[in-house]
Amino acid sequence: MEIRRIAVFGAGVMGAGIAQDAAAHGLEVVLVDQTEDGLTRARQNIENSLNLELQRWGITGSEKKVLLSHIKFTLNRSDVGSVDLVIEAIPDDLAAKQDLFAQLEAQLEQICPGEVTYVSNTAILPITDIALKMVNKERLVGMHFLAPVPAIKLVEMVRGVHTSQATVDRAKELARRMGKTPVDVLENPGYITARLVVPLINEAIMLYQEGTASKEDIDVAMRLGFGFNKGPFALADQIGLDIVLGWSEHLFSELGETRYRPQALIRNLAQRGHLGVKTGKGFYSYETHVDNAEEKI
Amino acid sequence: MKVLVLNCGSSSIKYKLYDDDRQLAEGLLEKIGTAQAQLNHTVAGRKKVVSVHEVLEHQAGIELILKVLVDPGKGVLTSIEDIQAVGHRVVHGAESFSESTLITPEVVAKIEECIDIAPLHNPPNLAGIYAISRLLPKVPQVAVFDTAFHQTMPDKAFTYAIPYVFYARNHIRKYGFHGTSHYFVAHEAAAMLGRTIDELKLITCHLGNGSSITAVDHGKSVDTSMGFTPLEGLPMGTRCGDIDPAVPLYIMGKEELNLQQINALLNKHSGVLGISGISNDFRTLEEEAGKGDKRATLALEVFCYKLKKYIGSYIAAMNGADAIVFTGGIGENSDVVREMVVKDMEFLGVELDADKNRAKKHDEAADISKPSSRIKVLVIPTNEELVIARDTRRVAAAN
Predict the structure, then answer these.
(1) Pairwise CA distance, residues B203 & A15, whole Å
(2) Which of A77, A155, B28, B349 is the most buried (most CB within 10 A)?
(3) How do residues B196-247 score in pLDDT, each as one tens digit?
(4) From B56, which residue of chain A is nearest by alpha-carbon distance?
(5) Is the CB of residue B152 less than 8 Å away from at least one CB of chain A?
């Protein structure tokens, strides 16, 4: 059966991005959050992102409307109804995720028994642990999307001890449907992406703090020298400094190597609310100016 | 012979049911892939019926259409067995098909091969073919290609001046589209002129949301304005038509646009919509131009000027012309566009009768040139479905 309707739990940056990208690829999406504020912000973020794409000629005004009509924003879990797949994108709190999946399973197995694939978008937690309170543990798989979801064509497919091949295949089908390339990883800390990018960003910060080179020159060197799309500072700003900080804390505690140790500079910026592109300031400043793109048409 | 004609788009299916040349029913199913798919079904002489259904894919859509056709209240057939052949509009047949063809597994495989160069159009066309193969396995199916009529173009007309390897390896060349419409109006024009098609030089202008113009020499397409894709040629509602190919490269660099964005810019944000900033609908543009809007006027002028230049070049290419034919939504209904295109062409022997042009009625064919005009100017309503029905009948009967 083709995947047609999915539910996304958690309307933060990742949840909203996944919902937007899934809707853009023709899926019906129910986006669930616990607060009205969260949903309003998600809707605003999606609209802003679509307005930017409209300004950059990538979509038309009517395509924007159609896309938004494919996303149902709701506070009510019972609005989920019958779905093919559920993606959890709430904050990385193990107990909260375990409870959410146990409750979702109890709800959905009554409506569409045996048919739902369960997906966690965790960046760091082991899938096996998240599945602890589930009955059908083989149907949970990790899909680590990266932000901004519509722009990044990669998903890390994370298998837990119990995850079945059928579940992995089903999640990969969703990834391809969303125009992403899946890569397989075991549930070791940081998978591929966080494990490699954290030491890179950390080392860049050290270079900068030693006075070896400016942030700008470090970024230019990596872009032009090694064909990176973005240098390490711009990349950290794009990922979100709170996220990078979370990854390094987790990797440092799990692996104990100093190369993963959280850098004071990131911690300071994050504590002041400077989280990168999404807040308008991180290592660099960003002007988030969205014209009323509708008027251009 | 009762023939069902299907035109399957990505989220819609248009259908017409014919008994020989007589149309029994027609309809449009939209929003396929949703729980709110809408079916507009009309039977000749009866009121239109609108209904909403959950239709998740093309096969379910065609099942629904077949059900409506035999419905005691809404239908026109007593049994599905009454359908003797099904004709499909297929957009791209590349160089494999120069005429309408009975669908066999080998033909399906070749249409599938064309997906590479028609990724948006051929898959839904194929979905219709797969569905009929399952639902009416014994009924012959015929594919009628948009590109087939233009397969007679000589290589000097279809070859692009880029390294030849891209033609040899990737099949990049001018294909042309709207072939069924150009074919139909060219033959209708011959009938109107009381002559046979193989003694005429015709220029057919299919002007609608997508527009193309074709030079038809002795019944054969010898050049056409659309190219490898429907983006080449005349400016259209939202498509740019011919521009300097360096322009998109320059914009991509300057604005840091990716491939998808530049593709959407040229296909969905350009044409008369892009110039006017108002609409892709020519009726709106004519209204706004009438009120003095400068960019609406400019959009119409750019469109008509480009068309005039194409007509001139095709007269040169064929060493003359007997008639210019207008068809399609704009060609059939906009006297403003027709006048802007063909006025001031007396040097070439084109003399428009402005009164006849303005007086021409909707859905009616007319000669709108003066009796003294060496090149006649005709308006002929197109009917692509009828061509598909006739070809389907002919091919199915021959096999």
Answers:
(1) 55
(2) A155
(3) 999 999 999 999 989 999 999 999 999 999 999 999 999 999 999 999 999 9
(4) A4
(5) no
- Contact predicate B306/B337, CB 8 Å: no
**Mean residue pLDDT across chain A:** 92
Contact A101, A117 (CB under 8 A): no
Superfamily name and number for A5-186? NAD(P)-binding Rossmann-like Domain (3.40.50.720)
Neighbouring-strand partners of residue B206: B212, B327
Please check whether residue B28 touches A, CB under 8 A: no
pTM of the predicted structure, to 2 decimals: 0.85
Whether A57 and B262 lie within 8 Å, measured CB to CB? yes
The tokens describing A121, both together, are: 């978008």
> Who among A4, A26, A60 is closest to B269 (CB)?
A60
Q: With contacts defined as CB-CB under 8 Å, which chain B residues touch A59?
A: 264
Residue for token pair 């010898």 = B222
Q: Which residue of B has its CA nearest to A69?
A: B34
CATH (residue range B2-145): 3.30.420.40
* Of B1, B7, B84, B2, nearest in space to B385 by CA: B7
- CA–CA min distance B268, chain A (Å): 7
Q: How far apart are CA B130 and CA B150, in angstroms?
A: 26
CA dihedral B219, B224, B230, B231 (to 10 degrees): -170
Cβ(B227)–Cβ(B176) below 8 Å:
yes
Give the nearest partner residue to B268 out of A28, A56, A60, using CB atoms. Answer: A60
Report domain extents, chain B: 2-145, 194-384
Does residue B363 have an active-site annotation? no
- Say whether residue A296 is in contact with chain B using an 8 A CB cutoff: yes
Contact A58 B261 (CB under 8 A): yes
Q: What is the ipTM of this complex?
A: 0.78
Which among A57, A296, A297 is the nearest to B264, CB-wise? A57
Break chain A into its structural domains and give their ranges.
5-186, 193-279
CATH homologous superfamily for the domain B194-384: ATPase, nucleotide binding domain (3.30.420.40)
Q: Does B268 touch chain A (CB under 8 A)?
A: yes
Measure Cα distances from A117 to A86, A146, A180, B328 in Å: 6, 20, 18, 49
**For residue B11, what pLDDT is reported?**
85
Given the residues B19, B146, B155, B335, the one annotated as active site: B146
**The two three-digit tokens of residue B276, written as one number:** 């006017």
Contacts of B253 in chain A (CB under 8 A): none
pLDDT classification of A129: cutoffs 50, 70, 90: very high
CATH superfamily of the A193-279 domain: N-(1-d-carboxylethyl)-l-norvaline Dehydrogenase; domain 2 (1.10.1040.10)
Instruction: Give CA separation, A166 vs A87, A116, A139, A182, in Å.
Output: 17, 12, 8, 15
Average pLDDT, chain B: 95
Nearest to B89 by CA among B122, B40, B56: B122
How would you write A71-109 as a 3-class SS string? Answer: EEEECCHHHHCCCCEEEECCCCCHHHHHHHHHHHHHHHH
What is the pLDDT confidence band of residue A288, given thresholds at 50, 70 and 90? low
On the 0-12 / 13-18 / 19+ scale of CB atoms within 10 A, A96 is: middle
